[in-house]
Design brief:
By secondary structure, the protein is of the alpha+beta class. The chain has 3 helices and 4 strands; from the N terminus they run αβββαβα. It has one domain: Ribosomal Protein S5, domain 2, CATH 3.30.230. Consists of a catalytic RNA component (M1 or rnpB) and a protein subunit.
Length: 118
Amino acid sequence: MRKSYRVKKEADFQLVFEQHHSVANKMFIVYTMTREQPTHFRLGISISKKVGLRGHERVWVKRRIRQSVLEFKPKMRSDIDILVIARPAAHDQDMAIIKKNLEHVFKLANVFVDEEAE
């Protein structure tokens, strides 16, 4: 995923946290915020040490989240910032389960375009 699709700065993270709409399931918490310049969505991912003490375990989860979002990209709204926070239940799950749970929480957060038509 290109860097222009990422929320990287601490100030941007804090802005989404302050003006957020949040939803959650057993594996993820998702914060969303509508933006004025809707060129494309931006994604921020946070994985705490509760998910995995070793760095490679957290990177493993982050890569699977990023790949799932890449597969959802054509269906996603372009006017939002999204923060995904992984819960400890996301550790040691395979790609299909992570993708299924991420899709569920994105539907709850109304991240997909034409969701009411589905």
